[in-house]
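User: For a reading group we're discussing how well predicted structures match intuition. Take Iron-sulfur cluster assembly accessory protein. Before you show the prediction, I'll give you the sequence so everyone sees exactly what went in.
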Amino acid sequence: MTQATQSQQPGILMSDAALRHVLALRDKMGKDLCLRVGVRQGGCSGMSYMMDFEEPSNIRENDEVYDYDGFKVVCDPKSILYLYGLTLDYSDALIGGGFQFTNPNANQTCGCGKSFS
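Assistant: Thanks. Here is the predicted 3D structure of Iron-sulfur cluster assembly accessory protein, as structure tokens, for the group to look at:
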């Protein structure tokens, strides 16, 4: 498991596979971007995960920022309430592959693993 550089346990953990895949996607875009992770209303279980690249200049003062050897993972303060302790993993399996979210705060998750309550 890749640990963020921070004196305390990071609120969002990334597996080595997830970090490698995110960095490869970012490199294809040819820009120095950070990854914003959050939640929004919706999905079959009530809340759905969201993540997208964004410019580091969009990082707000109250965002949680986790540094993975120079790559920043950012989360807004409301989302971190639902995501603290989240592990983001990636699998390239043909069935069930893609990003997987393991959230210790989720009471219930949907079958696809992309939403929770």
